[in-house]
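Entry 12.
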Amino acid sequence: MSVPKLTLASASPRRRDLLARLGLTPDAISPADIDETPLKAEIPRDYAVRMAREKAEAVPSNTAFVLAGDTVVALGRRILPKTENEEEARTCLKLMSGRRHRVLSSIALRAPDGSMRERLNETVVRFKSLSDAETDAYIASGEWKGKAGGYAIQGAAEGLIQWIQGSHSGVMGLPLYETRALLKAAGFTIG
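Predicted 3D structure (tokens):
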């Protein structure tokens, strides 16, 4: 029996590092190029699931499994952006300061025959009440660039988080428990 091949539909070094924690190295990296605009009135949970599925479907392969993921930071029904500038990052941090928010990390695994397996992880995160100096220091770090909700839990922001309930790896971008379960069900050998 041959070992299944795996294509990661993401350029994220974080997702590659997280897969390595499961003892896996993708055979190929093929970032999906899709429109990530939320649909009108789309709720965060549905958006996260749709994004992961569309990314898995966008990467052509009939010989390998395609693993895709999407991470969404949500305040209620509001989807926070992947911050591209300091103003967006500052706005996100201000909105989350002293409050809870949800991080929805969805994964989709498309088999060579086109069948799809999907999982969604939901983690609740609470930031401390941020002072202006703390916000300024985090903005100066540059860690917020391109990050959902304007922060990376694996960096300096971890010191600003009072608690999380759920998956730390899910907040980083790939919930390892769910990923492991999907890959094992598909026939991957994982220790």
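Annotation: The CA atoms of residues 126 and 163 lie 6 Å apart. The radius of gyration is 17 Å.
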